[in-house]
Amino acid sequence: MLTTSQRRLLTIAVVIAMSAGLASTTAAQTAAPYVRVFVDGAPVAFDQPPVIVGGRVLVPLRGVFERLGATVTWDPISQTVLAQSGATSVSLRIGSPQAFVSGQPQTLDVPAMLVGGRTLVPLRFVSQALGAGVTWDAASSTVQIAGSGAAAAPITVPPSVTYPPAQTYPPTTYTPAPPVMPAAVSGTVVRVAATTYPGQLLVQTGTGEVYTYNVVSGTTIVRMNAITGVSGPVSLAALRPGDAVQVTADQTGTAQSVQATFTPAAAPPPAGIASVTVTPSGRQLVVGDAMSVVAIGPAHGTASFAIQGLRTGIPMTESANQPGTYVGNYQIQPGDYLARGAVVVSITASNGQLLTATAPSPVSINASAIIPPAPGGAPVIGSPTPGSGIRTPFTVTGTAPPGALVRVEADYSGTVLLIAVRGTLGTQTVTADANGSWAAAFTQAPPVRGVSVTISAQVVDYTGAARSPSTTVNTTLQ
């Protein structure tokens, strides 16, 4: 409690300050560290001590409201405090003498203000907003706050005789000073307003404080890529929420320099190779065939394909009309031979990533380089010889290009008791070995003996299509 002498000295000091024209908010605020606040019997510790304005004690709103179970949020754009406790909502703006409780206006003894980065409100408002009971013990300078619904005596918070006479303070139209802006701050960009002059930059520190700096034509702004280290001067509009910043400012809150750092979003990895198509398909490839490979993958890459076991590094060209579609061709050469080979496409994407994919079906190639064993490239039948007799079972042998597929047929015809008979002893498809030799065995017998047998041989592909003229030998079944 202030003594009579202390109150007189305080009154004289305030009168001198006002007569000297000091209208700053610092002159209007008197620290009140001796005031103790208890909520439901438990002391409340404040990082910003209560102050006296207009003969009223102002306490940090968040410390008291949150102790009473309310949720408190701060809107730095509109300088508004929002609190919610059950069905009760409270809204008040810094510097405004009016607050809203569940949508209903309430007049404050003095406006809410920012002191030390904290929102302070008249203690009486706690009772008005949340229905809490508030009592004042002048002897111990103690405020007791009971939770919502608790009984309490009529509130005078605190008696005016405890403080200097009200006429020594500014009138209730007093506007609190803006918060002190630190000369240097590090934090994160919250919002950028670059369409007005001066522009504004809202920065939130690691401890949650939000500061608004004015940005003028003389403000130096530099933005650096955290990945590459490349930096350079930029305009305010180039800054983005989330940028890390260091701001230096003058006493008016005007930024002198802004050092921003950003981490660019990682480029998405290129999509894989969607498909690989090889044509022709479903048959063995031979000399003269042109194999076409089409792959669909990321655009603007470099592509090639390999026929495993035969060729590698066959170039592919990206379609000018269909970016991401690559086409390559290979002409089957004499001497190419591959029983079953995979076709593998490789695409180096624009970011350097190597992608590979394999065609769903392997390819077979038979284009061994040999001298045709007979005119026209037809296979040679070595046995049986023309006109010789055969008995069942019998074997037909001959030569053909190494690895060639040879289709051998044996058909019979004749006359028995003036009746013509005709039929087949079967068809065999065999493969010539590395020396070009082949053999086909027949076990089926005709219904009668003495008939003529015609044996034919022809090179075919895996589909059965003829790839050479046919060689024929006529003999007799004995």
Summarize the structure in words:
The protein has a seven-stranded mixed β-sheet, with no helix packed on it. A seven-stranded antiparallel β-sheet has the order 22-23-26-25-24-28-29, with no helix packed on it. The protein is mainly beta. The chain has three helices and 38 strands. The protein is rod-shaped and about 145 Å long. 6% of the residues lie in helices and 46% in strands.
How many helices in DSSP terms?
3
Strand content: over 45%
Compute the average pLDDT.
79
Unreliable residue runs: 4-28, 149-177, 369-375
Main beta sheet strand tally, sense and closure:
7 strands, mixed
Write out key terms for the chains shown.
3 helices; rod-shaped; seven-stranded mixed sheet; 38 strands; 478 residues
Sequence-ordered SSE layout with sheet pairings:
Elements: H1 4-19, E1 30-31, E2 36-39, E3 42-43, E4 51-53, E5 56-60, H2 61-67, E6 71-75, E7 80-85, E8 88-93, E9 98-101, E10 104-107, E11 113-115, E12 118-122, H3 123-130, E13 133-137, E14 142-146, E15 184-193, E16 199-204, E17 210-215, E18 220-225, E19 231-233, E20 244-249, E21 255-262, E22 275-279, E23 290-296, E24 302-307, E25 311-318, E26 325-331, E27 336-341, E28 343-348, E29 354-358, E30 363-367, E31 380-383, E32 389-390, E33 394-399, E34 405-416, E35 419-431, E36 437-442, E37 452-460, E38 471-477
Parallel strand pairs: 2-14, 18-21, 32-38
Antiparallel strand pairs: 1-4, 2-3, 4-5, 5-12, 6-7, 7-8, 8-9, 9-10, 11-12, 13-14, 15-16, 15-20, 16-17, 18-19, 20-21, 22-23, 23-26, 24-25, 24-28, 25-26, 27-30, 28-29, 31-33, 33-36, 34-35, 34-37, 37-38
